[in-house]
Write a structure and sequence with these properties.
Helices cover 37% and strands 25% of the residues. It contains four helices and six strands. The radius of gyration is 16 Å and the shape is globular. The N and C termini lie far apart (63 Å). The model has no long low-confidence stretch (mean pLDDT 92).
């Protein structure tokens, strides 16, 4: 059996039961509020938000939503993440608990600022 290759975030969400779709939609809308100019893409066959580079990914699993904000936010927000299972670049939000929407927004905004600080500005070169 071949795995589905998703083309859109809506297609990805539609693959899950209604209760999981509701959680995914809430997460999606929360990320969109924090990064309104970010492009919605499928990357590594997961929903992702990209602005110059990918800010965050997420994916539904059997008992949790995986939220992948890269490694740096894991260090910056470690005190706020103590109640979640985490790894170097991932946070697991259990399906049977409310999403920490304020924390998710803070992480996404942190990623936006971090990516912006590393993106060279496209100012014209000064001529001598």
């Amino acid at each position: 059996m071949q795995a589905t290759k998703f083309k859109t975030i809506a297609q990805y969400h539609a693959m899950f039961p209604k209760n999981v779709q509701t959680i995914l939609n809430t997460l999606h809308n929360t990320i969109k509020q924090a990064a309104p100019k970010a492009d919605e893409v499928i990357s590594y066959n997961m929903p992702a938000f990209k602005q110059n580079k990918v800010l965050v990914y997420y994916a539904a699993h059997t008992a949790h939503i995986g939220f992948y904000p890269t490694a740096k936010p894991m260090v910056v927000f470690k005190d706020e993440l103590t109640k979640y299972k985490t790894s170097k670049g991932a946070i697991q939000f259990p399906l049977d608990k409310k999403l920490p929407l304020a924390l998710i927004k803070k992480i996404v905004k942190f990623r936006l600022a971090d990516v912006k600080s590393k993106t060279p500005s496209k100012k014209p070169l000064l001529k001598n």
